[in-house]
Design goal:
The structure is a homodimer.
Chain A (H helix, E strand, L loop, with lengths): L32 H4 L15 E2 L6 H9 L42 H4 L1 H5 L8 E8 L2 H8 L16 E8 L3 E2 H8 L3 H10 L7 H4 L5 E3 L5 E6 L12 E7 L2 H4 L8 H17 L3 E7 L8 H13 L9 H9 L12 H5 L4 E5 L4 H9 L3 E5 L12 H9 L11 H5 L14
Parallel strand pairs in A: 1-5, 7-8, 7-9, 9-10
Antiparallel strand pairs in A: 2-3, 3-6, 4-5, 6-8
Helix pairs in contact in A: 6-7, 11-12
Amino acid sequence: MRGTNRQGHIVLTSHPGQRGPKPLAIDWGAATAAERGPVIGSLGTPAKRNVIGAHSGSYALYRALAIASGSLSPVHRPDLSNTAPSEAFGPFPQWSEPDKIVSLDPWGHMVGEAFAGQIAEGYDIRPTIAVTRARLTVPELKERLREGKLSVDGRILLPSGEINVTKVAVEPVWHLPGVARRCGIEENQLRRALFEHTGGMFPELVTRPDLEVFLPPIGGHTVYIFGDVAAVTDPARPLACRVHDECNGSDVFGSDICTCRPYLIHGIEVCMRTAQEGGAGVIVYNRKEGRGLGEVTKFLVYNARKRQEGGDRAATYFARTECVAGVQDVRFQELMPDVLHWLGITRIDRMVSMSDMKFNALDRQGITMVERVPIPDDLIPADARVEMDAKMAAGYYTPGPVPDEERLARAQGRGLDGYGTAS
Amino acid sequence: MRGTNRQGHIVLTSHPGQRGPKPLAIDWGAATAAERGPVIGSLGTPAKRNVIGAHSGSYALYRALAIASGSLSPVHRPDLSNTAPSEAFGPFPQWSEPDKIVSLDPWGHMVGEAFAGQIAEGYDIRPTIAVTRARLTVPELKERLREGKLSVDGRILLPSGEINVTKVAVEPVWHLPGVARRCGIEENQLRRALFEHTGGMFPELVTRPDLEVFLPPIGGHTVYIFGDVAAVTDPARPLACRVHDECNGSDVFGSDICTCRPYLIHGIEVCMRTAQEGGAGVIVYNRKEGRGLGEVTKFLVYNARKRQEGGDRAATYFARTECVAGVQDVRFQELMPDVLHWLGITRIDRMVSMSDMKFNALDRQGITMVERVPIPDDLIPADARVEMDAKMAAGYYTPGPVPDEERLARAQGRGLDGYGTAS
């Protein structure tokens, strides 16, 4: 190994207590940061780790590659000067209510402050949440402004068409007993499934029942907040919210087979308007491409839908995903409310979503939703009608009629060949 | 465990040959699919696996959660009917040239056809690449069309402003000996670093030197192809290309601190125009958020830049990332050319990138770049000037003058407080 990479004996897995002194305890859900204790996932001093896994989700692998090739020191410690949140968040009662938050560290943005003592003592404690400010340009909303459909207020929406926001990046931090309870299974079943059904990732899931916190190698969330952060939790002021699951093909490239980007942009508009009225808006962006199945599965399903006998139609929309993936959806919305609990939200006045899965997950977690805002009809791309009808028939919220069987059976999507021509 | 989840003894790791008959061999880089052999990463029949890791990159974890909670059968086999690529790709000479492709499976889109025999025998062989068609709406380009700056051709750019493309999703499949050679290190050093510096992920990296292929839990790539797929490899027709590394804050939300979305959109325009001239365009979108460091690190660095004494300036641009992350960048562009080799590309006429890292990586891999297309000055957001100047000073391609020291030392970015007001 180059540089200061570790030499010698390779430890294939660890066992409780084998390394001598116990690491600092984590009392998940404790009322204060001091009582909860820090999450220590850094690898420079293995004996101090009190979690399974590594920081930065799946980006841990790129860090390992950088260490392997000699460009990053394995014992580097972050200099956190000037990195503290641009806005204060919490603590909120939800941070210590039992099992309200099981998939992120509520103190993750405050480690520099909350664990200053331990950091000074030599513990490498890293933020798992970061809060900054940004100014956004959304071309569809600039056009709405030009058309006179939005009003500049000079604070949220600027004369240039730019939008001021506070934004928050959140890495996954799982409390395994809590995640198991959300799944409705035993913790040891969860640990074993996470180990075995990933091809043997992290044997410590099995060998370290004393370590209850897991940093999984998956994507996290980004939260965009419009308006005063204080308005998010003020019961006297309205709150709008959209929880959006990543769809790179639409969100970035504007593919017309689904409503993802149009609905996201509508969500941003509703959030911005609500902030302009003196309330706040929250967009949660979850990295769960293709319903958590990934983009390869998604594209295989597109082909199967477009080529099936009878054409692309709502009646067989979910079945095609199930044939390929064995399941319609693995986004596991049960964990989704955590980030809203972290924000201290108990009521959403305008929920910009028609998803029954999201509604039910939030409702089960005690978050009240007053109004549900559907996507305006003129924002649904022609080729996305199949998806929209299928979802409405399966329980999506709609203020209008649910599509009937004749409509569900009718081919409405383009064929695969139609993509290459001007049809 | 519910349903058909496995019971009994937990195997913490495996060792060569311990399960009886050897799995099918993989002869990486062989000239035909039959000689190369299939990549078998599915978990239903462990004895047949011939790789380390699991399919779908980091989404394997969501699949495991779905199995744990009983919604997905652990022995489901995909029905691949109608999922085959919408366009044929390859084989190209690069697929079997030594070490040209080390981080994806060149036969990954053809498994249904190339390994039909083994699938019929009961092997669960899954595509790691999927090819489909799509129709894109890019609001910035719709506006360019309205302004008369683009021409409708009815095949690539439609009168509606929509754009026809072929798109390809690619999951990572690493040949460990080849990846080690790209890193310039020994294979056992790579294996050990990947294991130890991820907190002990996949002990088989260490215990199974006989398994040379690894499916890492990281994001993959998406390729968007404009124009005839055949033109991509036709030396008589021009080819444009942009290799774009994910930046969710700009690509989706239009944050003004960097040039990511504007440059991507310019890349799409150049690709589309080149296709309209009878050539082709290729956008490669790599899931490597925040230079492969993730979004939490990125936001911490934004705060450190905005708050440092002397303000946000090009002279300290890279230093701020290094303070926090210990390294400027972990995207590891050495692996990036693989997807272009997979496409059969040997020459790019218009390379829409100013990055010296990308240029050097492609150049080292023998891909000729004729012209380098910078981002037009009027597409650079005001707050992104710091990034652009810092990169040009560090070796980014620019047809104009490199910024001088006085300019690099001057604060050009907004302060953090400026985000909340109309400044």
